[in-house]
TrEMBL record:
Keywords: ATP-binding, Kinase, Nucleotide-binding, Phosphoprotein, Transferase, Two-component regulatory system. It comes from Archaeoglobus fulgidus. This is Signal-transducing histidine kinase. The keyword Repeat does not apply. SMART domains: HATPase_c, HisKA.
Length: 323
């Protein structure tokens, strides 16, 4: 039997290395996928993705030292292909022949499976985020209702009653939005007018909100939660009476948000977006939710130094740059 022909016909990538890890053979499957040949590959590590190189070096070192039992099997690495990299499961066998050691490596492309697992994990993370939004924002609404209800105990005031009605309406709308978000993904984003979103989010808060400029961004109904949480934080934790939002579009959409409240202590600025972090005894979910939602729209948010009040800068991709 012609074993070389057999290896060439295998529906998987096959490489044979000598005891010094010099490449002796790369079958046609590898050549088709990568454009590489045994003659062009001086070191098998040159085919490994830079981020996976430390893992590959450690694994290959143990295999050469006869400690392959200490290496994960199959070994999962990103390796070169035409136009980029692909995920491969790598299996191997050490063969002794004529007093020499040879290494037979078989590569199986599992890129689709890895991408599917990543997609599933992203969806699970999205579900967890929706749950966080629902619990956090509903709690805020109920707290608002409770506060105004206590004020009404001291005497009827039409303004307080209207605020309770607004909060109830906001709760109903939130539940509707969450229902829509349950079926939303990064592939089902649609344009939102930022000025309209911010003005809608400000309803129910005793604060002056000034919006300068305007732009549209691709998002889902979670964009309302972004600004509701920012405004809610400014009012409840910062005691703000005025919020200014400036919207500009250039290479990206930039949203500069600042309030006239007490601001955020300098010693915690690096932690404000952490899940569960709070200095006010709250759930610590508000800014975490904001960050996760903005990132899901392809954007970023950062906290900037300010002499007074809190200042955030949000960026989003330009509408025409999204495909």
């Amino acid at each position: 039997m012609n074993w070389k022909k057999f290896l060439e016909e295998l529906p998987a990538g096959v490489a044979i290395l000598d005891e010094n890890f010099n490449v002796l053979l790369l079958n046609s499957r590898i050549a088709e996928k990568t454009g590489l040949t045994a003659e062009t590959v001086k070191n098998p590590l040159q085919t490994v993705h830079p981020e996976d190189l430390p893992k590959a070096m450690e694994a290959f070192g143990k295999i050469r030292a006869g400690k392959e039992d200490e290496v994960e099997y199959p070994l999962l690495l990103r390796v070169v292909r035409k136009g980029g990299y692909q995920w491969n499961e790598i299996r191997w066998k050490v063969v002794e022949d004529g007093g020499k050691r040879y290494y037979l490596f078989v590569f199986t492309d599992v890129t689709q499976r890895i991408e599917m697992l990543k997609r599933i994990e992203d969806l699970l993370e999205y579900v967890r985020l929706l749950n966080s939004i629902l619990r956090h924002d509903i709690l805020n609404i109920l707290t608002t209702i409770s506060s105004y209800a206590e004020l009404l105990e001291d005497g009827f005031n039409r303004k307080f009653l209207d605020k309770i009605k607004e909060a109830v309406s906001k709760g109903v709308e939130l539940i509707k939005k969450i229902r829509e978000l349950e079926t939303s993904t990064s592939e089902s984003l649609r344009p939102f007018n930022l000025r309209d979103v911010i003005e809608e989010a400000a309803k129910g808060y005793d604060v002056e909100v000034i919006v300068e400029g305007n732009a549209s961004v691709l998002a889902n109904d979670g964009i309302y939660s972004v600004f509701e949480n920012l405004i809610g934080n400014s009012v409840k934790h910062g005691g703000a009476s005025r919020i200014e939002v400036k919207i500009e579009a250039s290479d990206r959409v930039y949203v500069a948000y600042r309030d006239d409240g007490t601001g955020i202590p300098i010693n915690v600025v690096d932690r404000v977006f952490e899940k569960g972090f709070s200095t006010a005894g709250s759930t610590g979910m508000g800014l975490f939710i904001v960050k996760k939602l903005v990132e899901s729209f392809g954007g970023e948010i950062r906290l900037e130094n300010s002499n007074r009040g809190a200042r955030f800068v949000l960026t989003f991709p330009l509408l025409e740059n999204r495909t």
